[in-house]
Amino acid sequence: MAAPHDVRVSSLMNQTLVETVADRLRAIVGTEHVITHPDRLVAYESDGLTAYRVAPRAVVLPETTDQVSKVLSVLHGEGVDVIPRGAGTGLSGGALPTPDGVIVGTARMNRILSIDTKNRLATVQPGLINARLTEATAPYGLYYAPDPSSQSACTLGGNVAENSGGPHCLKYGVTARYVTGLTVVMADGEVVRLGGAGREVAGDLDLVGLFVGSEGCFGIATEIEVRLLPIAEGIRTLLGIFDSMEAAGHAVTDIMASGLMPAAVEIVDHATIVAVEASVFAAGYPTDAGAALVIEFDGTEAGLDADADRAEQCCLAAGAREVRRATSEEERLGLWKGRKKAFGAMGRIAPDLLVQDATVPRTRLPEVLARIAEIGEEYDLKIANVFHAGDGNLHPNILFDRQNPDELDRVEKASREIMELCVSVGGTITGEHGVGVDKRGYMPLVHNAVELEMLRRVRWVFDPHGNLNPGKVVP
Amino acid sequence: MTLLERFRGAVSGVAAHDSFEAVGRLALGEPPSLTASPRSVEDVAAVMGWAAEERLGVLPLGRGSEVRPVPDGPFIVLETSGLSGIDEYQPADLTITAGAGATFASVDDALRENGQWAPFDPPRARQRSMGGFVSTADHSPLWAGYGALKNHVLGATVVTGDGRILRLGGKVVKNVAGYDLLRPVVGGRGRLGVVASVCLRAFPVPAEERVLVVKGDSALDLIERALAVGVAPVLPVSIVVAGPLMTLEGRSAMVLRLHGAGSTVDADQATIEQHLGSSSDVFDGASGTAQSLLEEIRDFGGREACRVELSVLPSRVGEVLRAAGAAGLRSLVIDTYAGRIRAAADRLDPTDVDALRLAAEEAGGALRVLDWAGSDRPSDTPCRAAEVRLSERLVSIFDPGGVLWPTRS
Question: In this complex, do A210 and B179 lie within 8 Å of one another by their Cβ atoms?
C-alpha cells in the first residue's frame, strides 16, 4: 500500500547536508543516539499500522527537555520534517516517517519525575510505558486510569498525542481527563509550559485539552503531569456467553440503561473467539459461541455483588447461555484473557491485520455489526470484531495478506464502507486510535470544508511552518 | 439609514429591535445598539457575519446570569432564547442535545424523567442557559465524583466571529477525529465563538444520595479533616468545606456527598467516619435540609458584591486560606479535593486581594476576580506569556474581526 502522505521536499535531500545535520544532532544527544544506518532504520519504517512503510533519514533519541529543544531547533533551522515517536504501537500511522524526515523518539525519556501522593499527581517523561506508572503508584494506593490495550508497551507521550482510551475508559474517561499540565517543545525548539494542577483559574482557553490528541502536530510533550485515582476497594468480573452478537448487543444496552455504571463492557465475536481458542492464548471461551461479553465493576466492596447480580440478570434476559463470575484474581485474568489477547491471536490466522476504530451511538451497535458482517461477505474478507461495547467504540479487524494486491484493494474498499456506515448512524471515524495517515482520507466524512480549514489553521497556531508530523490528521 | 434598518436589510428573517431591558445579573452600562433573536444556527451565522462587517461587538446573551464587566465599545446583543429546544435525546445512549438558549433546568428535568441527570452543580445552575453554562464551565462541587464539565460535553455547534458554522465533536463518548477544538470552546467564555447547541453526556441518577455534615466553628478548622477524606480509600462525589452557612445557623461545615446503591453508601459512610474518627450528621439527599444546604453551597457568594475564585493544589489550601482570612474573606466555599476556593464579601480592599493572589501564586496557584464593586478591580493571575500568545493566535482565527467577547476590558 503506498504511503498516503504528502511527499514534501525538504532540504535533507542532499546527502552531505544529512551528514552535517546528523553531526549536529550527535553533538546534542551523543553519537550512539543518532541512527542513520539503513539497517537500523528499518525498525522505524512504520508503527503498529504496518501496511504503510517509509524509512526516515535519521532517528534521534534525546534524553531531556533541553536536548529535545536543541534537536528541534536544529531541524527547524534546516526545514526538516520532524516525526515524534513513542513506542510505535499506534494503529493509525501517526508515527509514519516522511522520506526526508527525522524521527525524534522518546524511548530514553522514560523516567517518572515525581509522584505527589497528597495531591494525587504524577509528572512523567513521555517515553514512560503506561503500565509502569500504575506499578510505581500502586504502593501508595493510587493508579493511572487510562489503560489502552497496549498499555504494557505504549508510552504516556503517545497516549497524550492520541488521546488514548482503553477498556476502563467507559467509567473513567480518556487521557484528556487526566492530563493537567504539559511541558512542550514547540517546532522551533521553544519550551513552553501549558496549564498545571492548581492553575485552573488562570486563563480561559484549555490549551492542554487542545494539545492532547494533536497527534504530534503541535509539539513534543516532554513532561506530562497527570492525575491519579485511588485504587478501588473491590472488583467483580463477569463473562457472558451468547449465541449471537445481536443478543450480546442487547445485553449491553440493557446494562447501561439500567442505571449501572460498569468500569468496562467489552465484546469479542465468534471469529475472534475461534482465533483466540486456537492460539497459545486460549482462554476457555466456547468456540461455538456467537459472542462473549466481559463486564467489570469496581468500587466499594459492599455494593459490587449487587451490581454484578443485576448485570448477570440483564445478560440472562438478553439470552446469555451462560454467565461466569471470577472468584479470584487468577480467574479474573482468565476471563479477560480472550479479550486482551485477541489481537495477538489473530496474527496466527492471517499475515496482516487492519485494526479499524470507529464509534457509534451504543443503541446502533446491533445494526452496525450486522452490516459489517455483510460488508465482509460482499468483499470476501474475514472481519473479526473486538470492541469497547459500553461506549460504542468498535474495532472491526480486517484480516488480509498485503502481498495480495487484489485483497488489499478489497480491504481499502471495505474499510471505507465501514467508516461511511458508522458516520451515517451518527458515529465517527475514530474513537481512540487517532487519524494519523490511515483515516486522513475519511476526514471529509465527518468534517466539511470549513471545519477542515479550521483544523489546518489551528495546527498553524502551534507549528506555522508545518514541520511537525506533516501529512497527518488533516487531508 | 439606522442600524436596525441596515440589519433588517442585510439579515432577513431574524427578529431584532433596538430597545433593551436588562435581565438577570446583567450589568451592561451603555445599552446595546440592537438586540437580535435568532431561531436557528444559520440565523446566528447570519447575525455574526453582519456584525463582523459592521465591526460591532456581539454579546451572546442567554439568561444574563454571568455577563460582567460591561462591554467595551459599541455592541449588539445576540439573545439565544429562540434556540431553546431539546433537539435530540436518546436515553439509551445517555446523550442529550439542546439549543444554547435552553435552560439547564429544562435539560436536567428531561433527563430525570428517564432516571438520568447531568451531574454538574455550578452556581445558579438551574437558571443558566446551556450556552452560558458551557461557555463559562464554572467549577462544580461534584467535581470529585464526576470531573469537569469539559469531559462530558460531547459536541457543540459553534458560530465563529465571522459567521462560520463549526460542528465540533459529536454525540458519541469517544471521538478523536481531528484536533479537539471543542476543548478550548468549553470554558472559553465565548472568546472562540457563539455556542448554538450542545450535546451533553448524561448519567444514571444514583440509587441513593447521602449527605454527611461535620460542623465546625470556621472553615479553616475543618480543612485538615477534609483533606484527610480526600486520601481515604473511599471517594465521596463531593468534598466541600463551607461557611458560615445560614442553613446551619451561621456555622461552618464539611459537607460530603455519597452516591450509589444503599449498601454502597452505608459502607462508604462507615469507612469515612472511621477515617475521620467521628460520626457526622447524616441527611438523605432528597430531604429539605440537605437540599437547602446543597443549594446554599452551590450558590454561595451570590449576594455579596465582591467574589474571587482561587485554584491551588489541595495540599496548599490551608496556607492560602490563612491569607484569605488576613484579607477579610471569611465567607468561603472550598472544594478540598479539587483545590478550588470561592470567597465573597460585600467590600474588599484591593490591596488585600492582591496579597491573596500573591499567596496563591506563591503556592503554585492562581486567583480570578469574579465580581467587583468599584473601579479599583484587582488583577487576575496572568497566563504565562506563551499561553497568552497561543491563545491570541487561536482567537484570531476563530474571530478575525475581534467582534466576540466585547466584555474583555
Answer: yes
B341 φ/ψ angles, rounded to the nearest 5 degrees: -130, 130
The Cβ of residue B79 has, within 10 Å, a number of other Cβ atoms equal to 24
How many C-beta atoms lie closer than 10 Å to residue A354's C-beta? 24
pLDDT tier at B293, thresholds 50, 70, 90: very high
Q: Residues of B with CB below 8 A from A194's CB?
A: 386-387
Burial class (CB in 10 A: 0-12, 13-18, 19+), A413: middle
- Which B residues in the span 184-223 are in contact with A, Cβ-Cβ below 8 Å? 184, 186-189, 191-192, 203-205, 207
> B364, A217: Cβ pair inside 8 Å?
no
Per-residue model confidence as pLDDT tens digits over B144-200: 999 999 999 999 999 999 999 999 999 999 999 999 999 999 999 999 999 999 999
Taking the C-alpha atoms of residue A423 and residue A420, their distance in angstroms, rounded to an integer, is 5
Which residues, at least 6 apart from B67, have a Cβ–Cβ distance to it below 8 Å?
B25, B26, B27, B28, B59, B61, B407
DSSP H or E segment with residue B320: helix B317-326
The residue among B41, B112, B179 with the most chain A CBs within 10 A of its CB, best to mutate, is: B179
**Measured between beta carbons, which residues in chain A are less than 8 angstroms from residue B339?**
119, 197-198
ipTM for the whole complex: 0.95
- For residues B133-137, average pLDDT: 93
b/e string for B243-264 if b means 16 or more Cβ within 10 A?
bbbebbeeebbbbbbbbbbebb
Task: Assess contact for B329 and B355: CB atoms under 8 A.
Answer: no
Bond before A230 cis per omega within 30 degrees: no
CB contact under 8 A, A199 and B382: no
With a CB cutoff of 8 Å and minimum separation 6, the contacts of B389 are none
- Whether residues A361 and B90 touch (CB distance < 8 A) is answered with yes
* Integer angstrom CA distances of residue A76 from A81, A100, A161, A201: 8, 13, 20, 34
Mean pLDDT of B198-204: 95
Q: Could A435 and B178 be called an inter-chain contact, meaning their C-beta atoms sit closer than 8 Å? A: yes
Residues of B in contact with A228 (CB under 8 A): none
Residue A460 and residue A462: Cα distance in Å, rounded? 5
Query: How far apart are alpha carbons B300 and B307 in whole angstroms?
Result: 10
Is the Cβ–Cβ distance between A167 and B360 less than 8 Å? no
Helix (H) or strand (E) holding A254: helix A245-257
**Record: contact A300-B95, CB cut-off 8 A:** no
Other beta carbons within 10 Å of A443: 19
Please list every residue in chain A whose beta carbon sits closer than 8 Å to the beta carbon of residue B316: 198
| Distance between A40 CA and the closest CA of chain B, angstroms | 32
Classify B281 as helix, strand or coil: strand
- Per DSSP, the three-state class of B369 is strand
User: Does the CB of B31 have a partner CB in chain A at under 8 Å?
Assistant: no
Tell me the one-letter amino acid at A431: G
Query: Most distant CA pair in chain A: distance in Å?
Result: 71
**Type of residue at B405:** W
Give residue-wise pLDDT tens across range A417-435.
999 999 999 999 999 999 9
Residue A8: pLDDT band (50, 70, 90) is very low
Substitution target in A170, A182, A184, A201 with the highest count of B β-carbons within 10 Å is A201
C-alpha span between B183 and A105 (Å, rounded): 27
Whether A213 and B176 lie within 8 Å, measured CB to CB:
yes
Distances (CA, A) of B401 to A460, B47, B365: 19, 14, 33
d(CA A210, CA A219): 12
The model's pTM is 0.95
Distance from CA of A197 to the nearest CA of B (A): 6
